[in-house]
Amino acid sequence: MYGYVRASSLGPDGLLDLQTSGGTTVAGPAAHPRFFSGFLGEAEPAAAALLGVANVAQARYWRPNLAALRDPVVTCNGDRLRFESFSGCCGVYARLDVLESGLDGTALDRGTTNVDVNNDLRLALTRVRGGDPLRLEVGPEGLEATTFDGTVVERKVPLPPRWLRGFAEVQAVTSGYDLRAELRAADAARFLRSLPNAPRGVQWLVPAGRTLRLAATAGPGAVCLAGPQRLKELLPLLRFGGALRVYGPNLTRGSGPVASVWQLDLPGMRLVLTLSPEITRGFSGEGAVLSALAGDEVIDDAETVAALLAFDARVEPDRLAEESGLPVARVRAALTQLGTAGRVGYDHADAAYFHRELPYDAERAAKQNPRLRAARDLLDANAVSWDSAIATIVVEDHVQRVRAAADGALSCTCQWYAKYQGGRGPCKHILAADAYRRGERGLAESADDEELAGTR
């Protein structure tokens, strides 16, 4: 439940007063943290981009008849403000990075919280024009002299585990993506406006001169675009003349659908939309973080690394390795594990992780995940055995076999692996075999969670 001192507002004097709910700062938990006081350098694009993030939080692109309303997350990393949200269907992740060049004021603290974006504020943001000054206050002023009894605005909007889990999955899925296309402002505008409005299946795009064109299938250099209408929040921002950058994985001919990252550069800021591989698939069920949740060693490493984070705008693995005494590879694994608790995100423009905190517990996530629970059950039943590079897993009246390739990659004979080929995370047999091989028993304990049953 969100609790605010009062509702956020945009006054006639140009004061954008954003109220904060319970969050975390460098000093620890805070009821209503105060992060920033000053001006936004470009009022109109800032207002339009913030509205775009809020629109994503209110939207459902799959099964739109169901309600979806969440308050965006804001993180102050000292030299920038990041506003993040997820769609109700968990298929679209939005992030607005207001950079140092777009801020004219003082960062009062570092940390993460939720920020109130109500209907009246949304309407007011649509009226901001280029010549209007926009003074920004993130967090209430004068808390020490304020009595909150009877004045806190409570909004009973639950934070569902799958929405928060999406924050973890999106950075795990896309942190290895590279720049695939870069369109100048005019070319980006023509391309985005040419996309169909009606929902479509998966499309493949390839760079062609200064734009992107449709391709028949996936292949090297291609970008996956599922549900073009999910990019609609970029359209109102095209008049501000920013370049469009598209990030994706390295594909081979015949590859299946994958996520894509779309970054629109704006004056002093960037708006990022990350789309799930298919409009019917949310990031919360992708399973990319399951291996990170399963290990014992990585959890211990994550605790060590977490103690060194201070809401940095750029998390440097080499520096953390030096300060923690851990190898860089283990630091990177620890950062992935921290991502499962929403404690780090990934910025493709900087090619670096950034620190934030969300009210989500990775240990609880592990306990709720059915694949992890099933893998633990296999270990408890002594159903796993290894012989050279092949593991045998006895499942009721049949067996499955997990094979280790020369590069260490694991494959399985089960239907789940045959269908997804690892594209939606490891199956329960791979999780169990991998944990057994490492001598670990740190998988999730059994817990019921009907909401997650569909991810089996």
Any overview of this molecule?
The chain is an alpha+beta fold. The protein is built from 12 helices and 26 strands. The protein has helices spanning 43-58, 119-125, 161-174, 185-194, 290-294, 296-306, 317-324, 328-339, 362-368, 370-380, 415-420, 428-437, and strands spanning 2-4, 9-10, 15-18, 23-25, 28-30, 36-40, 73-76, 81-86, 92-98, 103-107, 111-114, 135-138, 153-155, 178-183, 202-208, 211-215, 223-226, 244-248, 260-266, 269-275, 344-347, 352-355, 384-387, 390-395, 398-404, 410-412. It has a 10-stranded antiparallel beta sheet with strand order 5-4-11-7-8-9-20-19-18-14, sandwiched between helices. A 5-stranded mixed beta sheet has the order 2-3-12-6-10. The radius of gyration is 23 Å and the shape is globular.
Structural features:
456 residues; alpha+beta; Arc Repressor Mutant, subunit A; 4 domains; 10-stranded antiparallel β-sheet; 5-stranded mixed β-sheet; 12 helices; 26 strands; globular; disordered C terminus
Short description:
The protein has 456 residues and is α+β, with helices and mostly antiparallel strands. The protein is built from 12 helices and 26 strands. It folds into 4 domains: 157 residues, DNA Polymerase III, Chain A, domain 2 (Roll), CATH 3.10.150; 119 residues; 73 residues, Winged helix-like DNA-binding domain superfamily/Winged helix DNA-binding domain (Arc Repressor Mutant, subunit A), CATH 1.10.10; 87 residues, no CATH class.
